Amino acid sequence: MSEVQLDTAAEQAIDWMVRLRSGHADARLQRQLQAWLNSDPAHADAWARLQRGLGAPYDNLRRMPGAADLLMHQHGSRRQLLRGLAGLGVLGVLGGGLWLTASSTPVRDLLADLRTGTGERRNFTLEDGSRLSLNAGSSVDLAFDPRQRLILLRHGELVIQVAPDAERPLIVRSAQGEVRALGTRFLVSQEQHATRVVVLEHSVRASLAGHSESRELGEGEAALLAADGIHPLREQSARADWLNGRLSVTDEPLEAVIESLRPYLPGYVRVEPRARTLRVQGVFPLDEPHRALAALGETLPLQVRRFGPWLTLISLREP
CA–CA separation, 231 vs 224, rounded Å? Predict the structure, then answer.
């Protein structure tokens, strides 16, 4: 999915637009907006750019099927709104500090050597005989030469079964560091601010980018590679259950569960902040993600609402 690159003022301007176009704006909300505009010149500038960019396109979008729910529903968020504009083909409408990538899938993912789309898992046999599996919404680049076998994980999650090669080590590199195979099968997941490593067979050596810190992980061990170090994790082998179309959860927050489902869900999913910390356990079908959401709504005090193909809202069920 597209990432939206915004500064703080731009994010706040999007929030204000969503609130004003929710159909529930009143004089009090208008006064609050005016106070926000007057408090910082950057606020007024971001608001003006947003209005210039969304004037005519917004009027046209309201007539498109499903777009009104996305743009006008009071519980929408800035990220879903902007991603939705990208998905509707309205690109580059936000000038200056507000901009979208050139398509609903990041350009770097479109140009990757190997990639998967929404709800798509794929298996590959690499030129050295290693077997690579990509989870939905994932992309990698390959750089194999006589000295090394390098896999650059751009987005998403992979499992690699490494073919032996005494002359060329196999390395998976992510935004936070790299994982060197020591004759093994392991999982690597690129998350928002960290890289998750789970060793399924044998061992690996994980190291941080730009740091001397490294750690050897044995079979059944896992760790997060983050800016402040390598953090061991409890048993994580069930995270590879996506290979068989399952999401297995043992006492995880709802927010993390939804993040695992996102690559399988068309459109955009927003979880109300109050609901994000609810604890979840169970096994959910990845290939039927809406059935998984329905199961969450049945077992937790949640309301799951869908607005056409564009938006799914998950909130606490009101008593």
Answer: 5
- Percent of the chain having pLDDT more than 70? 73
* DSSP 8-state symbol, 238: G
Rounded Cα distance between 61 and 90, Å, is 9
Quote the distance between the C-alpha of residue 276 and its chain's center.
15
Local structure of 29: helix, strand or coil: helix
What integer is the mean pLDDT of 170-176?
96
Q: What's the CA angle centered on 314, arms 300 and 190, to 5 degrees?
A: 100
Q: pLDDT (tens digit, 9 = 90+) per residue, 204-251?
A: 999 999 888 899 999 999 999 999 999 999 889 999 999 999 999 999
Sign of CA dihedral 274, 104, 292, 313: positive
Q: What is the pLDDT of residues 31-82, one digit of tens each?
A: 888 888 889 888 888 777 666 544 434 444 444 444 444 444 434 444 455 5
**C-alpha to C-alpha distance for 286 and 148, rounded to whole angstroms:** 34
Among 264, 231, 18, residue whose Cα is nearest residue 137: 264
Q: What is the DSSP letter of 226?
A: E
Task: Return the H-helix or E-strand segment holding 213.
Answer: none
The pTM of this model reads 0.68
CA distance 183 to 185: 7
Amino acid at 187: L
Rg (CA), the chain: 22
| Inter-residue contact 286 to 245 (CB < 8 Å) | yes
